[in-house]
Each structure stands twice: as structure tokens, then as C-alpha cells.
TrEMBL record:
Pathway where this protein functions: Cell wall biogenesis; peptidoglycan biosynthesis
Keyword annotations: ATP-binding, Cell shape, Cell wall biogenesis/degradation, Cytoplasm, Ligase, Magnesium, Manganese, Metal-binding, Nucleotide-binding, Peptidoglycan synthesis
Organism listed in the record: Nocardioides massiliensis
Gene: ddl
Cofactor(s) annotated in UniProt: Mn(2+); Mg(2+)
Main location: cytoplasm
Name of the protein described by the UniProt record: D-alanine--D-alanine ligase
Length: 378
């Protein structure tokens, strides 16, 4: 099967792009790493880049344009936004206003497009998208609804199931049920069989996830997940399945979304699943096969399901759809990520590079797509 990306849109190129990163979620550091790569690509392409960091306490600051400051160090230290920089607010029309202590706000610049590379709650979940819609600013990626539903794994499964798309069996543990009737919370989990995976319902980057082999191990795993989200998703394990991913691009207006080649995550070494260390730390046990070694019909089915999921969620711009290919031959959707990791070595850009759109062209295309889209209802 041959997969070829369509030409980039002919939208007039915007001039100034604000990259927003960091944020209040547990994925703060990964957002910073993604931002460093995006800033580097945009700067190299000649865009006027305004780097905006959101500190862990929610304050917005003007950050350095140096991408090196946003990389994971050789010792594994993760980057972080501090509050040392000039404070910022975003005003209607895309005007950035600097807030220097003791001074009246002063207009800093007007941005044409915002590239939000926030991961997790308070950013990827529709909150920053709603703010940008209110400010009448064009931005890269999905709107409020798709971002919110995509962030909540429970809501996402309900949405996909309603559209006839396949997902794994699951149970949800809410804060109220866990605090008032743990026996009732455990009952639907036991009916799934073991092993299961216990996850924060609105988390990402494999943070707070545990593989649980028995009911006796459940409480500890739930408490770990609850450190990141009071709502917990418990999912039946896809035993002996292969983990596949597919990127989707486009989807504005009358333009049909396109799927990339399909890739595979192969977890090696001591890792039982694709956890945080296997994803992001050097020399850890995982391998990304791009493209995956698959029968043509399986790859084609994954690409078609990815586009169906993208449309079902009303996504825009970009998304990564993750699958399990079960031993019985079925493909089921694990999740859809509306702002996937975006370093050159991340799966989404690598899949598109293998499809014929390299990293600089991919970043440029997403900015142009955003510039062509209106704000408000569409």
C-alpha cells in the first residue's frame, strides 16, 4: 500500500506565531520539550515566534527563544517554566500585554496564530481553546469540544462507542464512589477480569498508570491514579496485542482529513507497558517502527478507523489515534490524542515524515491550516 500526503494548503503565510507551553498539569515538562522543537522549526522557517510559558501556578510569562533551554538534559533533568520572566496576558484580537511590576500594561505584540502545545488538563482539554475563541485568536488544533472529550478517556470512549467505533471494556471509579462505597467501586473492575490497567481519566504521558494483576493490587493503583485525577479509568488489558498508532492531519471546512502511515510501538527490556520512562527517557526499553510491518489490509483498516475517529470527535488540525491489534485480528481504539507529542523523534511527526511531510513542513502546514480557519462556530 502506498501512502502519500497531499500538498500543503495555499493559505497566505502568517507572520507572528505565539507558542504556548508548560501549564499546570503533570505533563508540564513534556509540553516544554515539545515547545522547544516547535519553536526551533518555526524560527528556522522565518516566523516571528513569541514563546509564552505557563508556570505551574498558572502565571503566563515571556520565555526565552532558545530551544536548548527546553530540552531534557543528558542527566534526565526535565525543563520547567518559572515565573522569572515578564508577566503576560492575552487581550482580544491576539494582543499580548506585558505586565511589569509598577507599570501600566503595555501592548507587546499582536499574534496571527497561536500554537498551543500544552499537554493534559488546563490546556489540552479545551480550556486554552475556549480562551483563544473568546479572544478571537486563530490557533492550531482541535476546538473546545474535541479537546475536552479527547482529554477525558471516559467521555472519549462513550463518544466513540456511540459512533460504532470499537474500544476495550472498561470501568470508571469516581471520587464519590471510592470515598463512600469501595466495594461497589471494585465490583465492575472484577467483572473485567485481570490484568487491567488503572489510569487517571484525564491524564497523559503514561503518568499515574499501573498494570494490576489481581483485586488485591487494585487499591494501591487507584490511589496512585487519584494523585493525578479524582476520576479513574480501569481498562481491560489487551493481552498479547500489538500497539499501533496513526496520525491524522487536516479536517477544516470541506477538506477531508488524511491519515499517515501506521506505526508500531514495541516495548522491550523490563517495561511491562509503554510507561513514562520508555516514552521519554534516553536508553529506555522501547522501539518505534515507522512504518509498522503489517499486512496491507490491517494498515488500511487502521488508517480508515483513524479518520473515522477523527471525524467522530470533530477534531481539527491534527490528532494521533492509538490502537491495539488483538490476537484475534480485531483492531480496537485505545485513545485519540488531540495534541500529541511533537518533537522530531515523537511518533506523530515521524509517521508524517514517513508519509512525505518532514518536520519543518508539518509545523508550517499546521500553522497555515490554523490561519485559514475562522474562530467561533464552524
Amino acid at each position: 500500500m502506498t501512502t502519500t500526503a497531499s500538498p500543503a494548503p495555499s493559505t497566505p503565510r502568517p507572520h507572528r506565531v505565539a507558542v504556548i507551553f508548560g501549564g499546570r498539569s503533570t505533563e508540564h515538562a513534556i509540553s516544554c520539550v515539545t515547545a522547544g522543537s516547535v519553536i526551533d522549526a518555526l524560527t528556522s522557517a522565518g516566523y516571528d515566534v513569541v514563546p509564552i510559558g505557563i508556570a505551574r501556578d498558572g502565571r503566563w510569562v515571556l520565555e526565552s527563544r532558545d530551544p536548548a533551554a527546553l530540552r531534557i538534559s543528558e542527566q534526565g533533568a526535565l525543563p520547567e517554566v518559572t515565573t522569572d520572566g515578564t508577566g503576560l496576558v492575552l487581550a482580544p484580537g491576539g494582543n499580548l500585554v506585558a505586565l511589569d511590576a509598577g507599570d501600566l500594561p503595555a501592548e507587546l505584540s499582536e499574534v496571527d496564530v497561536v500554537f498551543p502545545v500544552l499537554h493534559g488538563p488546563w490546556g489540552e482539554d479545551g480550556t486554552i481553546q475556549g480562551l483563544l475563541e473568546l479572544a478571537d485568536v486563530r490557533y492550531v488544533g482541535s476546538g473546545v469540544l474535541a479537546s475536552a472529550v479527547g482529554m477525558d478517556k471516559h467521555a472519549m470512549k462513550l463518544h466513540l462507542m456511540a459512533q460504532g467505533l470499537p474500544v476495550l471494556p472498561y470501568a470508571v471509579i469516581t471520587e464519590r464512589t471510592w470515598e463512600t462505597d469501595r466495594a461497589a467501586a471494585r465490583e465492575p473492575v472484577a467483572s473485567l477480569g485481570f490484568p487491567v490497567f488503572v489510569k487517571p481519566a484525564r491524564g497523559g504521558s503514561s503518568i499515574g498508570i499501573s498494570k494490576v494483576g489481581s483485586l488485591e493490587e487494585l487499591d494501591e493503583a487507584v490511589e496512585l491514579a487519584r494523585q493525578h485525577d479524582p476520576k479513574v479509568l480501569v481498562e481491560a488489558a489487551a493481552v498479547d496485542a500489538r500497539e499501533l498508532e496513526c496520525g491524522v492531519l487536516g479536517g477544516f471546512g470541506h477538506d477531508a482529513p488524511e491519515a499517515s502511515v501506521v506505526a508500531e510501538i514495541v516495548v522491550e527490556g523490563d517495561h511491562e507497558f509503554y510507561d513514562f520512562a520508555a516514552k521519554y527517557l534516553p536508553d529506555e526499553g522501547s522501539r518505534l517502527d515507522v512504518p509498522a510491518d503489517l499486512p496491507d489490509d490491517v494498515a488500511q483498516e487502521a488508517r480508515e478507523l483513524a479518520v473515522r475517529a477523527f471525524d467522530a470527535m470533530e477534531c481539527e488540525g491534527l490528532a494521533r489515534v492509538d490502537f491495539f491489534w488483538l490476537p484475534d485480528g480485531r483492531l480496537v481504539i485505545n485513545e485519540i490524542n488531540t495534541m500529541p507529542g511533537f518533537t522530531p523523534s515523537s511518533m506523530f511527526p515521524r509517521m508524517w515524515a514517513a508519509t512525505g511531510v518532514d518536520y519543518p513542513a508539518l509545523v508550517d502546514r499546521l500553522v497555515r491550516l490554523a490561519a485559514a480557519r475562522s474562530t467561533g462556530l464552524r
